[in-house]
Design brief:
Protein name: Glycosyltransferase family 92 protein
Family: Belongs to the glycosyltransferase 92 family.
CATH architecture of the largest domain: Alpha-Beta Complex
Subcellular location: Membrane
CATH topology of the largest domain: Spore Coat Polysaccharide Biosynthesis Protein SpsA, Chain A
Number of helices: 10
Main location: membrane
Helix content: 10-25%
InterPro entries: Glyco_transf_92, Nucleotide-diphossugar_trans, TAT_signal
Strand order of the largest sheet: 2-9-8-5-6-7-4-3-10
Length: about 575
């Protein structure tokens, strides 16, 4: 009897302790989110820093805790200094993105390998450096044997030195942490933008198109990562100012807190903070010996993957009609993009490449571009590499001039923040392979209807939320959209099948279904008559041919000669002096 009584008392005490803990956690959440007046946040972005005292988080905020790399020294050589701490995230199609920690010194010229424990390994491909933190990114594929593991852990990064056959091998003194999943909620990038605000890019907070969680429900959490076994220390928790798609605008942390490396994540009301890969990189203070680049009238921004062979034609043409600079968001290209960019820059063109390895994050990439380019460009054309801005009136000119496109934006009223241009979609035009003379001269038959549109955006007119539908942005109050009657976009959308079928790999837009997904069958984002597999439809070479249109074909032949895509040295470019 006494034993049963003691057991009943013990159970009662445990229940009481559990209830007390639950009440304490609820009160902590209420106190955290009651620091901000929701109505005030909805009315205007909060600028006053509202800090919480430094505290320890019981939730593990860090992404993948450091796998470290230590060099195996050759005989007579000193061991390589600091270890390579890495983080990793599993992307679609069993691809793994491996990021070196900020400031890590790796051998960029060496051969890299991802080692998945003792099970298997695969080659790692260098992607470049992420824009905000400068962290070097690598991509590898999970080998089939490793996919069978119940818990997939972050791979070890093995880099062979360019000067030695010895390798530096990632070791962690134990098991590597579990890998982060791109399919889950994740903060993946950040950027400090005009005015000092911080953009935080996150998956999973606003997963549905057109449905955005209120900014008043979200806090921006800046924290320092702890060492092995410790808890991450929060240094500031501030209210988000905007919430749209995968982009969240946050106030910066206090300058005193940013003296050391900080991470940034998001905390949604009533939920645990999201795991984060994002590093807060404060703007550099003091004078710089490198002058700021001259602000140009028109830039072009696009996302690319394995389109290097099309790049020269697109750049040469648009530079000739008035585009001053080009920004390419590289989504993991495996072709010779870097070589093509180098050749074009050597020929006098102005091209910058931004590493953007995130899957199906085109809208977020363009939001990033619209924010970070504000001090470099007045207007930006958000068009793809298979799209060419053109006016039928230009066909009457013997030579292209930069005033052709510049006159479009210079002539609008001061309250015009976006110039929209209708698209003419061209078909295969009888081609069975990529035309050697280029797309503008090789595809000459198009659809009659103009269903889509692209835009030229005045960057200071973009809404603070940076909300966009890939190629056109929401504008701030007081600005309006003007539809151009002078220019259109020639979209070489339905090319020869060998080129078009590449699209089946994956579409880059966040909210557009992949070609292989059997959903949204009637959507205009789908190609009429195309199934869900990369199988050439009957009669493809002559589809989408309703109007024979040779206007741009004739103009480019007259301006640049036949196949100017391969004759860069014959093309003059003077915009760099304007």
């Amino acid at each position: 009897m006494q034993l049963h009584a003691r057991r009943r008392h013990a159970v009662a005490r445990r229940r009481l302790l559990i209830a007390a803990a639950a009440v304490a956690m609820s009160l902590a959440a209420v106190l955290c989110f009651s620091r901000v007046d929701p109505s005030g946040l909805l009315a205007a972005p909060a600028r006053a820093l509202q800090l919480v005292p430094p505290r320890r988080l019981h939730v593990r905020l860090g992404a993948v805790k450091g796998t470290t790399a230590t060099a195996t020294p050759a005989a007579g050589r000193k061991s390589r200094p600091p270890p390579l701490e890495t983080e990793a995230v599993l992307l679609p199609d069993w691809e793994v993105l491996v990021l070196l920690r900020p400031g890590a010194q790796d051998d960029a010229a060496g051969n890299a390998t991802c080692a998945f424990g003792s099970v298997a390994s695969s080659p790692a491909r260098a992607l470049g450096k992420l824009p905000a933190s400068g962290r070097r990114a690598y991509l590898c594929v999970v080998p089939v044997p490793a996919r069978r593991q119940r818990r997939l852990r972050a791979p070890r990064l093995v880099i062979s030195s360019s000067s030695s056959s010895k390798v530096s091998t990632a070791t962690s003194g134990g098991k590597s942490p579990e890998i982060l999943r791109w399919s889950s909620r994740l903060v993946y990038e950040s950027a400090v933008v005009h005015g000092g605000d911080v953009l935080v890019f996150a998956k999973g907070v606003n997963p549905r198109q057109g449905v955005n969680r209120a900014a008043s429900d979200i806090r921006c959490v800046y924290y320092r990562r702890a060492g092995t076994g410790g808890d991450d220390a929060v240094v500031a928790s501030l209210p988000a100012a905007t919430s749209a798609q995968q982009v969240f605008r946050c106030p910066p942390p206090p300058s005193t807190a940013a003296s050391q490396e900080l991470r940034v994540t998001l905390a949604v009301a009533g939920e645990e903070p999201l795991p984060s890969l994002a590093v807060y990189a404060p703007p550099r203070s003091g004078s710089s010996t490198t002058p700021a680049p001259e602000k140009k009238l028109i830039c072009a921004c696009t996302m690319v993957r394995d389109v290097a062979k099309f790049l020269p034609e697109w750049v040469v043409y648009h530079a000739a009609v008035g585009v001053d600079r080009f920004y390419l968001y590289d989504n993991g290209s495996e072709d010779d993009l870097a070589d093509q960019v180098h050749q074009l820059n050597s020929a006098g063109y102005n091209i910058s490449t931004v590493t953007w390895p995130w899957a199906k994050a085109q809208e977020a990439g363009f939001s990033h571009g619209a924010a970070v380019l504000r001090d470099s460009c007045e207007w930006v054309a958000f068009v793809d590499v298979d799209e060419f801005i053109f006016s039928p009136r230009w066909n009457q000119s013997d030579t292209p001039t930069e005033s052709m496109l510049r006159s479009i934006v210079s002539s609008v009223e001061p309250d015009v923040g976006r110039v929209s241009m209708r698209c003419a979609d061209f078909g295969p035009s009888g081609q069975t392979s990529n035309p050697k003379e280029g797309v503008t001269q090789g595809y000459t038959c198009r659809r009659r209807a103009e269903e889509r549109h692209k835009s030229l955006l005045r960057l200071d007119a973009a809404d603070d939320s940076l909300l966009n539908s890939i190629h056109h942005f929401t504008l701030r109050p007081g600005f309006r959209v003007e539809w151009s009657k002078r220019v259109r976009v020639n979209h070489y959308k339905y090319q020869a099948w060998e080129e078009f079928k590449v699209k089946f790999r994956r579409r880059v837009s966040t909210y557009v279904a992949d070609w292989t997904d059997p959903v949204n069958l009637q959507s205009k984002d789908r190609t009429p008559g195309l199934g869900f597999e990369a199988v050439e439809p009957v009669g493809w070479t002559h589809k989408f041919c309703e109007v024979n249109d040779t206007l741009l074909h004739d103009a480019t032949r007259r301006w640049f000669g036949v196949g100017f895509r391969n004759n860069l040295t014959t093309v003059g470019h003077s915009s760099s002096s304007s």
